[in-house]
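Two folds, back to back.
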Amino acid sequence: MHGGSVGADTCGVSTGEFPPDWLAAREVADGAARARSLLEPLATHLAQHSGPLEIHDIGAGTGSMRRWLARRLPGPQHWVLHDSDPRLLAEASRDAPGDESSVCADGSPVTVETWRGDLTRLEAGDFAGAALVTGSAVLDLLTHGEVAALARACAAARCAVLWSLSVTGRVELTPPHALDSTFAAAFDAHQRRTTAGRTLLGPDAPLVAARALQGHGLTVLRRPSPWNLGNGDHILLSQWLHGWVGAALDQCPRLIPPSRDYLSQRMHAIRQGTLRAVIDHEDLLALPTERG
């Protein structure tokens, strides 16, 4: 689990590694956290496009990004949902016609198609005709080379980029506990682990992505998008806590003995409604420069 999602070790970087109940639980928190200040410059840029907007969603999972973003942008829109898990893609394309995620901000329709494949092998040709490439909580599951290649593909396709909810590694728990920083450090090390020959970026992903896109001449805007969880978020906070500690224990098994009391105390605080967590993420918008 990363700053908001369960980790994936497959080369396909599938959100299929994420339990559906976790994806459902986090969707409301994701929507509240995303940096809405990036929507105005994005909409201004997209207004220059004629015809339907083609939007590619990388690591689409069950389609939460489309459900959040489509109704906040003008249309009509055609979404291409990319993932390597067919079950999640099937769910993502099942929204009933007429629900709020099936129409754009101006009432125009939203159409959807799915693309199953390895997200680490996407190239500029896969984005031909795209106005926007987006994705949520996926960059930290990639390597430096994979993010560089994805940035290069987006730049070559001359499309805008909106990558949201990339984990930064900053977590603040209230009330504090003496072991918070210990588990946080182990978790961050787990995020940067090498698995199947791939060294994941984890909390380094936002900076690496920004530099890669800037290196191709795109204008990059970065904004914080933290989760703020507390009383009323018992289910999500409990799932996040167990995933956060579990990843730390995978990285550092010596923490298993003290983790028992730590989890017991933290879970008691969640049940009492006294634990608050700020789990930091970052949103990134990159816009291509206009041709002279």
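---
second:
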Amino acid sequence: MSLPAQTVRFGPFELDLRAAELRHNGTKTRLPEQPFQVLVALLEHQAEVVTREELRQCLWGSDTFVDFEQGLNTAVKRLREALGDSAEKPQYIETVPRHGYRLMVPVERLDSAAPAIVDASARRRRIWLTASALLLVAVALGVIWRQQILERFRPVKIESLAVLPLVNLSGNPDEEYFADGMTEALITELGKVNPLRVISRQSVMQYKGTNKTVPQIARELHVDGVVEGSAMRVGDKVRITTQLIQANPERHLWSESYQRDLRDILALQSEVARAITNEVKIKLTPQEQTRLASARPVNPDAYQAVLRAKSEKDSQKAFAYLQQAIAFDPTYAPAYVELAFYYVDETYRARPVKEAVPLARAALDKALDLDPTLAEAHAMLGYIKFWFDWDWSGAEADLKRTV
């Protein structure tokens, strides 16, 4: 079905094709370019499946190389948000697994046909009105085109970022800990860059599985840009897809997919962080460049055990995971830092302070012996000195070292 009409109705919605404007119950919504193109393709193939490859050709063409899977998923997600639809219980857009999408409601063209016979004066009047309208449209299109060109070449200025929870693409809910751990790791890596303000993990985790748009999230968190993506682990291989989006005006700046061995996960996290800082034009100091480049291989089993411990709500199970991590790799410093966190938490449960704090301090000493630059270890040591030792100057020194 072709769409020569300017306005098309489907279900309770009307779409103005010329203005890329969606109307519903008197409300008008301007659709971003890619969700609009997806909707047009679905309308043109009413009740038919539009394949993912056809949508790729429609959105990017054959000569553009992007991670179209992530881009298409994002475009469909935004379109469903605009329609108030969901992938789980679709009313308008049906997902055909591993194939494409189908519009579920009938489509109707609204433009009425012109009468066959009109008098000469009416015809002349219509010609003049049409010419005037075309002139106005041309001027408007010129203004829009100029604005788009200006927006395209406007320098990117992102000084604050939110890393949204990475989506777990494994299909296994038990792997959520891995995607959450990767989210926290990216936040930590980007947080090492001083000019960049990065929102904390606690603040962004509330948006896990949210239907809110990027501009809305950015307004709520007061940030200039958002990083979103997905993570998947298969055996000892890990795949991460990330994209950087400017919030206002909303603009896709960069996307990339990475696949590495799990033992190189720390280097991968640093590589992603460096790529993002390059895109937002943050100039790294030599010290920051060194920190982001100094990532040694890790024991995959130890790394995963620490991630499981962080996400485990049962303290005894978390402790068991940390013991496993240290058994897998006694030289993995982050395991000892998490062990110190566990012992300090025990002071709020059943273990006496005079027993728990020395154990926490011993774990931190071991961590700093293995890696004197580990910021998390200095932060916890400063916490212990402040709350348990009342060593104000010592706490201040460790917290400054953390920063």
